[in-house]
Design a protein that fits this description.
The complex is a heterodimer of chains A (about 110) and B (about 110).
Chain A (H helix, E strand, L loop, with lengths): L3 E4 L2 E5 L4 E7 L3 E9 L5 E7 L5 E4 L2 E6 L4 E6 L8 E9 L6 E3 L3 E6 L1
Parallel strand pairs in A: 2-11
Antiparallel strand pairs in A: 1-3, 3-8, 4-5, 4-9, 6-7, 7-8, 9-10, 9-11
Chain B lengths: L4 E3 L2 E4 L5 E6 L6 E8 L3 E9 L2 E5 L6 E5 L5 E5 L8 E8 L6 E2 L3 E5 L1
Parallel strand pairs in B: 2-11
Antiparallel strand pairs in B: 1-3, 3-8, 4-5, 4-9, 5-6, 7-8, 9-10, 9-11
The chains are: A mainly beta (about 110), B mainly beta (about 110).
Chain lengths: ~110, ~110
């Protein structure tokens, strides 16, 4: 059974600081996704990572994937208040159609 | 292109009742997946439909069922509602396994 663990579950940081969210998964995966969710809202797709060593960047967010370690990271550079949200990683297991297994989420609060 | 739409957006039901939620995928997308989100259990996969066939099913009781129509629209039904069914129900639309687009969700409250 595929398990996905994120840490930390909660992150409070000052504006301008850097931090990394970690996503570990237990079995071979075809791809890994990062989503953002604002309170009371749906999931917004941030990144899709397809292969070992994949790195994608959008603004102050950068995601990477190490399939050998079964680890993905979401790095936040010089955080701003607008990045406050909950971030989820999700893994598509092998031969699982479109069934995503989600991590528990990281609630990020960026303080001025 | 219009995004994924879900109706209704909010719903209040009483224990023991049943409910039907609807999801219209992005035009051309043949796969629709359903997820339940609760504070305690997080985001959990319910089922996926592809070309009117259920392709995957999560670990939920038989009270949760779904179907997909020839136009790819999907419905999810929950019978004999329990308090624990209160959740945000999200559907996701996909053309391939590369990207999944989530709808705004239906917030179900069971009293």
């Amino acid at each position: 059974e595929l398990k996905v663990e994120q840490n930390p579950l909660f992150l409070s940081m000052q504006e301008g600081k850097n931090y990394t969210i970690y996503c570990n998964y237990s079995t071979t995966s075809d791809r890994l996704y990062w989503y953002r969710q604002d309170p009371g809202k749906s999931l917004e797709s941030l990144f899709v990572l397809l292969s070992n060593g994949a790195v994608k960047q959008e603004g102050r967010l950068m995601a990477s994937l190490d399939t050998k370690a079964r680890l993905s990271t979401l790095h936040i550079t010089a955080a701003v208040h607008d990045l406050s949200a909950t971030y989820f990683c999700a893994v598509l297991g092998a031969n699982a159609g479109n069934m995503l297994t989600f991590g528990g989420g990281t609630r990020l609060m960026v303080k001025p | 292109k219009a995004g994924v739409t879900q109706t209704p957006r909010y719903l209040i039901k009483t224990r023991g009742q049943q409910v039907t939620l609807s999801c219209s995928p992005i035009s051309g997308h043949r796969s629709v997946s359903w997820y339940q989100q609760t504070p305690g259990q997080g985001l959990q996969f319910l089922f996926e439909y592809f070309s009117e066939t259920q392709r995957n099913k999560g670990n939920f009781p038989g009270r949760f069922s779904g179907r997909q129509f020839s136009n790819s629209r999907s419905e999810m039904n929950v019978s004999t509602l329990e308090l624990g069914d209160s959740a945000l129900y999200l559907c996701a639309s996909s053309q391939s396994s590369y990207e999944q687009y989530f709808g705004p969700g239906t917030r179900l409250t069971v009293t």
